[in-house]
């Protein structure tokens, strides 16, 4: 599974290939911390896929200083945290547009789903292909 982070310009800022198939919501806080550490700045806005949505993640992002937090799909009683409805709409549209960047990245670097079972089956292939 890949965990991609991009910026306002659609440049991919971080790409992490994680073992197994963890829930996206478990990757959110570490990803926020990584961006802050790597770039020395707290993003003002954050728009993510619905898989990252949770009240805990929304509160964590707020505690780090992120102002506008939009999850593509809302679960339960969770609400997007935004300064205005216009900002929510803009972030949702940007999140939809980033799908093309993700698609190009996956095609360009052959980052497709591995159907082999177990790390031992593809570990040597990954080492040799890099």
Please supply descriptive tags for the structure shown above.
4 helices; two-stranded antiparallel sheet; disordered C terminus; alpha+beta; two-stranded parallel sheet
Would you mind describing this structure in some detail?
The chain is of the alpha+beta class. It has one domain (2-129). The protein contains four helices and four strands. Strand 1 and strand 2 (12-17) form a beta hairpin.
Q: Structural class, from helix and strand content?
A: alpha+beta
Q: Average pLDDT, to the nearest integer?
A: 84
Count of beta strands: 4
Which percent range fits the helix content?
Answer: 40-55%
Supply Rg. Answer: 16 Å
Overall tally of domains = 1
Shape: globular
Strand content range: 5-15%
Largest sheet: 2 strands, antiparallel
Q: Helices and strands, in N-to-C order?
A: EEHEHEHH
> Strand arrangement, largest sheet?
1-2
Low-confidence stretches: 126-130
Give the helix tally.
4
Short description:
With 130 residues, this protein is α+β, with helices and mostly antiparallel strands. 47% of the residues lie in helices and 15% in strands. The chain is built from 4 helices and 4 strands; from the N terminus they run ββαβαβαα.
């Amino acid at each position: 599974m890949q965990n991609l982070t991009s910026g306002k310009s659609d440049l991919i800022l971080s790409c992490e290939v994680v073992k197994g198939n963890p829930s996206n919501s478990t990757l959110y806080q570490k990803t926020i911390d990584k961006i802050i550490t790597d770039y020395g700045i707290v993003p003002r806005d954050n728009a993510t896929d619905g898989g990252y949505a949770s009240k805990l993640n929304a509160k964590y992002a707020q505690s780090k200083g992120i102002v506008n937090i939009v999850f593509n799909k809302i679960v339960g009683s969770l609400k997007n945290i935004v300064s205005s409805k216009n900002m929510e709409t803009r972030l949702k549209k940007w999140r939809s547009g980033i799908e093309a960047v993700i698609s190009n990245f996956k095609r360009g670097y052959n980052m497709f789903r591995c159907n082999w079972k177990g790390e031992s089956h593809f570990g040597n292939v990954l080492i040799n292909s890099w």
